[in-house]
Amino acid sequence: MHDHPSSHHMIVPVKTYVAVFVSLLVLTFVTVFVTRFDFGAFNLIVALAIALLKAGLVVMIFMGLKWNKSFDRLAFFGSLVFLFIFFSLVFVDIPLRGYRGVEESQQINIKSPVKPFPKGTMPNAAH
């Protein structure tokens, strides 16, 4: 019943799983170790690089992408490229959030009918 030609699965040696598991443990300790250092603006980059290595191991070995067809790899890495593009657009936006144009930097005086409460007083919430 399960003899379809496309249903074969790569048998991964236990030694490979153990090596990946040990690598993940070592990278977890590296993650904890590097938190003791201040890399300045590169803190996020270092953390993401270590996380990317760990995710790469999981995806390639435990999820079997290493032995899949090339189209599967292309689809997976293509989605990562688009994810990188979306994140980079956000990271470009963050430093520019404090920017104000000429029109925005001018104060506009508007007479508002809303009167602020004097400091130290609390309005009565009960109706």
Structural account:
This protein has 127 residues and is an all-alpha fold. It has one domain. The protein is built from four helices and no strands. It starts with 13 loop residues before the first helix and ends in a 22-residue tail after the last helix. The mean pLDDT is 81.
Structure class: mainly alpha
Beta content comes to under 5%
Low-pLDDT windows of residues:
none
Distance between the termini: 74 Å
How many helices?
Answer: 4
For the sheet with most strands, the description reads: none
Task: Find the count of extended strands (DSSP E, 2+ residues).
Answer: 0
Order of helices and strands: HHHH
What does the radius of gyration come to? 27 Å
What would you say about this model in short?
With 127 residues, the chain is mostly helical. It contains 4 helices and no strands. It has one domain (9-97).
Layout of helices and strands:
Elements (H helix, E strand, L loop, with lengths): L13 H21 L8 H20 L7 H24 L8 H4 L22
Helix pairs in contact: 1-2
Descriptive tags:
4 helices, mainly alpha, 54% helix
